[in-house]
Amino acid sequence: GFSCLVLNPLLVNKFFTASLRKTKTDKIDAKAIAIMLYHIYEQLPDKSSLPKDFRDIAREREKIAQQIATVKNDIEKLLTVLFPELERIVNIYNSSTLKLLSKFPSAHALKNASVEQIEEALCPKTAGRPVKVSAQKIKSLAEKSIARHWPVKEMILVQKIKELLFFEEQLEFFTNMLREFCKEASLCQDIEILKSIKGIGDITTMHFLAEVGNIEQFDSTKKLIAYCGIDPTVYESGRFKGKSKISKRGNRHLRRIVWLMSVGVVMHNEYFRKYYNRRRAEGLVYRKAILAVAHKLLRTIWSMLTKKELFYSNHAPHHLYEKDNFL
């Protein structure tokens, strides 16, 4: 068979538009790609990257997680009309609460139910933890509620709960698939290396590795940062110097994961929190300070994965202290 290479379409387009001729046909496009490969083939990295299936599983899981967030927002909006007081006393996403709302989807429905019926819904015999609030308290709250009786929205809420339960089942399925794939691909060592950074957990680690692939394809931290799309853009002309922004030309899925990881280490890791506080003290706004942390975190991760070392805040490589001058 033929070996395949994935090229950045932006680079191919720039190479193609370098020609003075404006003609564009399929033959000319194919010839331009062939000429480009002839010139840059020796510079292409030997990518022994992870199978594309790993990334596909991770992205499907990410999509489902986003759908869950959307459905939860819908449920909360519906409850502000149907039973706004409920969220103050129980976790509305507890399995017992969801079962209760599936059966009695509003304050009006709960008000007309007996205490015994509410207790039966709150204490499932099969699965789920019972809520700590008594059935009598929920009924009393429903009787005093300012909620409206709205049958159509009650029906929609029941369907949204069914959607949520379905998506949560799918999320668990794809999470287990990710874990199994990591074991089969011998990624356990890399996972443990990343998890040695306090504030980074299993899920974000697996998503990060799925998007990055083999760290060896990045021969410098700058290339990893550029692949993430948080590298600075610089525009200068004469005495004019434009404000730098991130390029956003990299992997948007990886960029989202790195942002979440950066927020996590600022919250739970003293080493990165000190760096974040220092950059805020220098005048950076929240988003720029988090971006500075993201740069530092990627440099740290690149060093750890290439050297196969765990994280030790007192032994950070010298290049980790490079300042992000675009911020």
Automatic annotation (TrEMBL):
Domain Transposase IS110-like N-terminal residue range list: 1-84
Domain Transposase IS116/IS110/IS902 C-terminal: 192-276
Listed InterPro entries: Transp_IS110-like_N, Transpos_IS110, Transposase_20
Any GO MF annotation of the entry: transposase activity
Biological process terms in GO annotation: DNA transposition
PANTHER family per UniProt: TRANSPOSASE FOR INSERTION SEQUENCE ELEMENT IS1111A, TRANSPOSASE-RELATED
Name of the protein: IS110 family transposase
Originating species: Thermodesulfobacterium geofontis
